[in-house]
Write a structure and sequence with these properties.
A hairpin with a 7-residue loop joins strand 6 and strand 7. It is built from five helices and nine strands.
Length: 267
């Protein structure tokens, strides 16, 4: 009987070890992907609930499908309020869907803004009328800028919990759009629409972005990768004039991302 029990215990330990190795391998492979690749993978086969928002640009939430062709907020009206001490306090609430490890990844992303800007994400307090509700919904997404009330930032437990993806969605919530939709995009990126999946063309529509006087940043965490939304594995975006320039490979905020954030909020 002792031998029988011992054998089952050994087998259980072996199974746990194999499972852990497989999980580690998956995590290691994911760490090699850029933020834009992680986002596209996480949102590729969404099956959202009826109360979830329509997405444009892959991960930008809008309140209705009718707003698909409307410009997300890019004016000062969508900025979070600055207080008299010069700081911008953005309340957040993290739902209890996340494990302690997952919560630590989210909190690290939130805290990363305080060392490079005047943005201070702080936990929700009674009386807060506007705050980010960080939830595990279907995929990774955020509204652009302050919306009023409780606004969802979705960081699905399966696919979205990486430092760079957290930063990416928080930058959306602070008012930033994707780099490839910049108003001066055509001077730096040529969009190859014939390679874009049918129905996804709107993801490459230019908008009147606030470029903060900064140059186009191929290394921005908000820049999508070369084959984003491709129907055939061929490039949907080609840098110009040098087609060999690497882009869409960021795994966290770039120097330009931080500079624009500080300029937008007058830090």
């Amino acid at each position: 009987m002792f031998v029988f029990r011992f054998s089952w215990a050994v087998l259980a330990l072996l199974l746990v070890s194999v499972w852990a190795e497989e999980l580690t391998e998956v995590e290691d492979q994911s760490e090699e992907l850029s933020v834009s690749q992680l986002l596209e993978r996480a949102n590729r086969n969404r099956n959202p609930e009826i109360d979830e928002p329509f997405l444009i640009g892959g991960d930008i939430a809008v309140k209705s499908e009718a707003e698909k062709n409307a410009d997300p907020c890019t004016s000062s009206g969508c900025l979070w309020r600055k207080w008299t001490d010069g700081k911008v306090y953005v309340p957040y609430y993290i739902t209890n869907q996340f494990s302690s490890r997952e919560r630590s990844i989210i909190e690290r992303g939130l805290e990363s803004f305080s060392s490079v800007s005047c943005i201070r994400f702080r936990p929700y307090q009674n009386g807060d009328s506007e705050f980010l509700s960080i939830e595990s919904r279907d995929g990774c997404y955020s509204f652009v800028g302050r919306q009023g009330g409780a606004q969802t930032v979705s960081l699905a437990r399966s696919g979205c919990l990486y430092h760079g993806t957290v930063q990416h969605e928080l930058l959306h919530a602070l008012g930033f759009n994707h780099e490839q939709t910049r108003s001066d995009r055509d001077n730096h990126i040529r969009v190859v629409l014939q390679n874009v999946q049918s129905g996804m063309e709107h993801n490459f529509r230019k908008i009147a972005t606030l470029n903060q006087g900064t140059s186009y940043d191929y290394g921005s965490v908000m820049q999508y990768h070369r084959t984003a939304f491709s129907k055939n594995g061929q490039p949907t975006m080609v840098p110009i004039p040098n087609s060999n320039v690497a882009f869409g490979q960021a795994k966290e905020m770039s120097r330009n991302d931080k500079a624009r954030l500080n300029t937008l909020y007058k830090c």
